[in-house]
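Design job #97: recover the sequence.
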């Protein structure tokens, strides 16, 4: 079983690099016992999530926020500091002097995600799509000089910041092996070897991270790959399953499980970890969808009761806030075609019922956040999503 995932080979300059074996694993996966039960549970949790999202008045607005939450968390794993609120303010073109400079990296992740989801209509998940996504992700940001969209032509390695090739935690295949390894992965993505779709997705993510085909951005592209495969294989009708929070909460276990695949061929251990993430994140996302419905109905009632003749305008503002959750008075004025005084009054009354909260503390150029909605995405449980 030791060489089941590949083997370490000495390179001409002295270091050892890992050469991955093509998927599917050989000997074949043992999908009996606990792993079969976990796969069944994961499939069920995904189905429940799909149903929960479809009960929402506009599922695409849920997708809007989830894509951004994933962009923030996936980028934070790579060391960025920007928050969900920083990203939303930047997208709304509301200048904030305290916005971290790396917010552009997070915005690129959103753009890469949306580009990939749109391309799936006419391009399967493939090496070509992966390169396009990488180009979108790395354009004009930290690491952008490292050949966006181009496979690496030099050796990379994984480990602490001061490590070298000689003492790295893991050394991926040398550059001349990368095109062939990716071609093998693409073949597996297209035929699947008769394996259950979720198992295919878990295998593909681990294999991509092992190949590490780019000089930078591999982790983010690998996490995007999960979403694209779930969508392409129709495991979800809407792209609302994002594992970055689970990977971030269990970061050391994530890296240990991937390394155990390479060192000991333990594909089953990795797949058990991956499926557990699918189960936990699916359940949490389904709970969030239900919470959105409850919150929306509660505030519809508060607006009707508290705004009197202005209730219709209040409802219109709330509906727009789902995909524009940080606003200023000028934005609301534009939405409703009101005078400045009228827009101010609506914003003030929505603030009064707890729908909006002012976040600048300024007397002028004030900004307001749709706080009850953002809270549903910001205050995730810190125990790895709970049960």
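Job complete. Output follows.
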């Amino acid at each position: 079983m030791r060489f089941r995932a590949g083997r370490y080979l000495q390179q001409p300059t002295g270091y050892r690099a890992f050469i991955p074996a093509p998927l599917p694993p050989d000997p074949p996966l043992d999908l009996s016992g606990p792993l079969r039960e976990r796969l069944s549970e994961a499939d069920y949790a995904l189905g429940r999530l799909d149903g929960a999202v479809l009960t929402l008045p506009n599922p695409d607005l849920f997708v809007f926020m989830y894509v951004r939450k994933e962009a923030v968390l996936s980028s934070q794993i790579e060391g960025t500091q920007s928050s969900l609120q920083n990203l939303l303010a930047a997208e709304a073109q509301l200048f904030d002097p305290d916005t971290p400079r790396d917010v552009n990296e997070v915005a690129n992740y959103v753009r890469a995600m949306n580009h990939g989801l749109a391309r799936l209509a006419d391009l399967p998940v493939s090496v070509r799509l992966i390169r396009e996504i990488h180009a979108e992700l790395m354009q004009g940001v930290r690491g952008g000089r490292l050949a966006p969209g181009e496979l690496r032509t030099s050796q990379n390695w994984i480990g602490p910041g001061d490590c070298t090739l000689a003492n790295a935690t893991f050394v991926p295949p040398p550059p001349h092996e990368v095109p062939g390894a990716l071609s093998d992965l693409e073949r597996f993505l297209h035929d699947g070897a008769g394996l259950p779709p979720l198992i295919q997705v878990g295998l593909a993510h681990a294999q991509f991270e092992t190949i590490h085909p780019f000089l930078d951005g591999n982790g983010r592209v690998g996490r995007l790959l999960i979403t694209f495969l779930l969508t392409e294989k129709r495991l979800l009708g809407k792209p609302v399953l994002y594992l970055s929070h689970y990977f971030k909460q269990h970061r050391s276990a994530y890296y240990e499980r991937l390394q155990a695949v390479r060192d000991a061929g333990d594909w089953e251990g990795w797949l058990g970890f991956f499926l557990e993430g699918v189960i936990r994140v699916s359940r949490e996302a389904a709970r969030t969808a239900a919470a959105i419905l409850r919150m929306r109905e509660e505030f519809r009632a508060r607006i009707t009761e508290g705004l009197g003749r202005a209730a219709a305008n209040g409802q219109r503002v709330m509906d727009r806030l789902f995909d524009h959750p940080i606003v200023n008075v000028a934005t609301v004025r534009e939405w409703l075609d009101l005078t400045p005084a009228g827009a101010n009054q609506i914003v003030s009354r929505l603030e009064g019922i707890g729908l909006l909260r002012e976040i600048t503390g300024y007397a002028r150029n004030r900004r307001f956040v749709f706080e009850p909605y953002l809270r549903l995405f910001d205050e995730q449980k810190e125990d790895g999503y709970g049960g």
